[in-house]
Amino acid sequence: MIPSLAVARELRRRGHEAFFVGTERGVEARLVPAAGFELQKIHIGALKRVGAVQRLATLAQLPLSTFRMFGMLRKRRTSAVFSMGGYAAGPVVMGALAAGRPVVVMEPNAIPGFTNRRIGRYVARALVSFPDTSRYFPRGRTEVTGLPVREEFFNLPAKQPSETFTILVTGGSQGSRTLNRAARESWPLFRQANFPVRFVLQTGQPEFEALRAAFAEAQLPGEVLPFITDMPAAFAAADLVVCRSGAGAVAELAAAGKPSIVVPFPFAADDHQLRNAQAFSDAGASQMVQDRELTGAKLYEMVAILARAPRLLEQMSAAARRLAHPGAAARAADILEEVAQ
User: d(Cα 34, Cα 11) in Å, to the nearest integer?
Assistant: First the structure.
């Protein structure tokens, strides 16, 4: 939703009208109205990683939802449709194609999601983050734009070396049990080694209290937080980021030019987080470790090696910046204007 809102704001700044289609149970129900945009609600469920009953219910909803979107897009004289995939996008995209409206998709992951793979051959343009993703779409219709990221990440000053090595560990707003557990297990190791480290851990709300108490007991510098409001500032203070490898996370790493240890979420759809992590690792921007392999001892070992290799950290930072794509929202708006004409 964050990248979609960035594109919508850019379109509105140019004098165009933008509205969203989504479900009442998705995050869009909260974020879209708060941003001042209209949300048209659709009743549709997922098809992947659900039981047979849910799959049948979704298949039954699909024709009616598609027909409704077809009528709505024609009635509102919609000029173009922008989609980032997801199950809610299916009826909208199919309705748009049936109505003869051009569809521009943004695929931020190394491997497209289910919806974008299915409709890939019919899109007017596909905006991707990784060059290899172009093979899933028609030749000549793709462009590497990257994912819209807050401008603050691109403007972060270079982290100056210091005696204390600062690690930012974040599993996203909901936290990650694997990252939380590994961080907690590593604290006694850093303490015993008298390692000059400072930890900043975003836990998510469920495990916050337990981890805060454990961190206080470890007596290490840093802080444990349920949620970090100013993530660009947290990035700026970090020498190393340990995180998942969702599209938003790797885009922020690239924009900030931060060396990282990435831990793909093993249950991500189509294993896209693994593909994202491999792309970053192959570029020399990150070191990847599988979820099942991340322990406190493994985290301690990797951090200790990197902290003693400033030249390697500089190389990882430079490699990450080479993967950054500033101006992605503006470029997406350019392309939507082009296909709409």
Answer: 17
**Cα–chain center distance at 291:** 18
Structural domain harbouring 224: 152-322
Count the Cβ atoms, other than its own, within 10 Å of residue 132.
12
Distance CA 289, CA 267 (A): 15
The full 3-state SS of 168-225, as one line of letters, equals: EEECCCCCCHHHHHHHHHHHHHHHHCCCCEEEEEECCCCCHHHHHHHHHHHCCCEEEE
pLDDT digits (tens, 9 = 90+) for 40-76: 998 765 445 555 555 565 556 678 888 899 999 999 9
pTM: 0.85
Tell which residue, 309, 266, 248, 247, has the closest CA to residue 284.
309
Find the CATH number of the domain harbouring 165: 3.40.50.2000
102 with 186, same domain? Answer: no
Domain count, the chain: 2
Contacts of 176 (CB under 8 A, 6+ apart): 204, 244, 263, 265
Whole-angstrom Cα distance, residue 83 to residue 81? Answer: 6
Q: 87 and 18 in one domain?
A: yes
